Amino acid sequence: MTIKIVSFSDLTKKELYKILQLRAEVFIVEQNCVYQDIDDKDEKAMHLLAYKNNTIIAYTRLFKAHDYMDCASIGRVVVRKDYRKHGYGEELMRASIQGIKDIFKETTIKVSAQLYLKKFYNDLGFVQLGETYQEDGIPHILMIRKEED
Predict the structure, then answer these.
(1) CA–CA distance, 144 with 110 (Å, rounded to integer)
(2) Which end of the chain is more exposed for a tag (fewer CB within 10 A), N or C?
(3) How does DSSP classify residue 116?
């Protein structure tokens, strides 16, 4: 898997198209969830694209503190369905955590995680904050990862 992190303005039209296609494929069609994916936050985010054989197979958005949450955050975590169960999700998140550290110089990171992925995020050092809540009809939990400098 090859990782690339770019700003919104540095995304090519084709990359943006493929990212939006992947997000719609998973978050809207596969999860049967009608929601507004294009949310005006893409322009503030850094975009982590994971490639395999010149195809975007996974993606996240990276935010510095106060651009989305009160600390740095990772969102729109997605792995193409036919590439799951091969460890790419963990590799994607480790690259995202490192990207936050390298780009924003921050070590406290929050995610709004789908509840069923709690163990996945726990294994990456995230712990739950607060109670379960509904987001677009799907149970979520807020999770935080703090690392000592």
Answers:
(1) 4
(2) C
(3) G
55's tokens: 């195809």
Q: To the nearest 10°, report the CA torsion of 110, 116, 122, 128.
A: 50
Q: Round the average pLDDT of the chain to a whole number and report it.
A: 95
Instruction: Give residues with Cβ within 8 angstroms of 2, minimum separation 6.
Output: 50, 51, 52
> For residue 15, which phi and psi values (nearest 5 degrees)?
-60, -45
Distance linking the first and last C-alpha atoms of the chain: 28
Do 22 and 48 touch, CB atoms closer than 8 A?
Answer: no
Q: Which domains does the chain have, with CATH numbers?
A: 2-105 (3.40.630.30)
pLDDT bracket for residue 137 (50, 70, 90):
confident
4: Cβ contacts below 8 Å, ≥ 6 apart: 48, 49, 50, 51
User: Within 10 A of 100 (CB to CB), how many other CB atoms are there?
Assistant: 27
User: Structure pTM?
Assistant: 0.94
